[in-house]
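Researcher: Let's continue the batch. This sequence belongs to Aminomethyl transferase family protein, and it's 408 residues. Same format as the previous ones, please.
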Amino acid sequence: MSVTPQQSPRLAQQDHWRAMRRETPFHPRLSALDFRHDWYVWAGCKAPLSLWDEELEYFAIRSQAGLFDISPMIKYRIEGPDAEACCERVFVRNVARLRPGRVHYTAWCDDEGHVLDDGTLFRLAETRFRLCCQERHLPWLLDSAIGFDVTVVDETEAVAGLALQGPTACAILKDAGFAGIERLKPFDLAEFPHEGGAVTVSRTGFTGDLGYELFVEAADALSLWDRLWEAGARRGIRAIGYTALNRARIEAGFIVANADFIAAEHAIRADRVRMPDEIGLGWLVDEAKPHFNGRRAILDARRRGTLKHILVGLEIEGNVPAEHALVYHARKTEVGLVSAAIWSPMAKRNIAIATLSRPYGDTRNDDLWVEIYAMREGQYMKLMKRATVVPRPFVKLDRRTATPPADC
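Model: Same format as before. Here are the structure tokens for Aminomethyl transferase family protein:
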């Protein structure tokens, strides 16, 4: 007679790897459209890298509209009389300037000024915020809330989310009955009726394109998907996976925690942590606002000139992506590492995001090279390609900020 995991605790422990990853509220619709069986784990959830064709999914974002499940994104509700004061204490950006009905991009640091994560802060009401981010921070947020009359709740599983990105996104929402959606400016948010409740829609996204993010109670997720899918049929709506989204975000010059920088709580080696100025987020830091985590350390580093790294955009000769390539000065001195790279279909350039050791990428940008290993007929070939520091974003689309957007 065979022994099942239920009969043997020891075997049950050994069999833990068979446990299914959590499925998002939109999984029934995604699995029905899945032709690739190309899934990965995002925050404990089963999520698609691609569903039908990663190249065409990317072009759906740039020429039609891509629908991407963002439900696994970590979401916290920060609410109470002291919600603004608490957020002001935590985040590097000035929260008092964030009006209800608006969203802003921000970051937060430990006491040494090292970035814990970046994300978007939604001001849903005067005393209610939603924080969306990559990593889990509930214990840290609860500790930071001590002394404030505020409640911090993880609502990741309770709230489902979709990103609708691309030139036809606004037209699809109008066709779906979101009256007045065309009046939303970038980083505006508003509530719209849905299934007797409400869906929160913000003009935000991670593609550098015209786009919106929609948040709804998990129980109403499938009806929201169907509403968009039906309205988008004649506008070219397509479900997409992370690979396509990642290509678009690199073109937009956006960074990802624990990919382009190591979050402070994840860093094992002391030299891997980064301050906001070292990952291109110095512009978020409001020196004039009241005290916030890491303020003294950040300002001291600026004053003393002790910042060691800089995150830059690179344009690289040739058409072979330089992902995870080493960066050299004069072909011999190692000065940095590429964290993300693609051949950009929109920019028609070989582009990359890299972290360099100062002064390279800061005051010294001459004679930079990347070391690429390209597979050619079963063997790797070493390619040394010249790199030039260039501004981000690599692709800037007027439709991202046009209000009202074109009715495509």
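Researcher: Any comment?
Model: Residues 189 and 202 are 4 Å apart (CA to CA).
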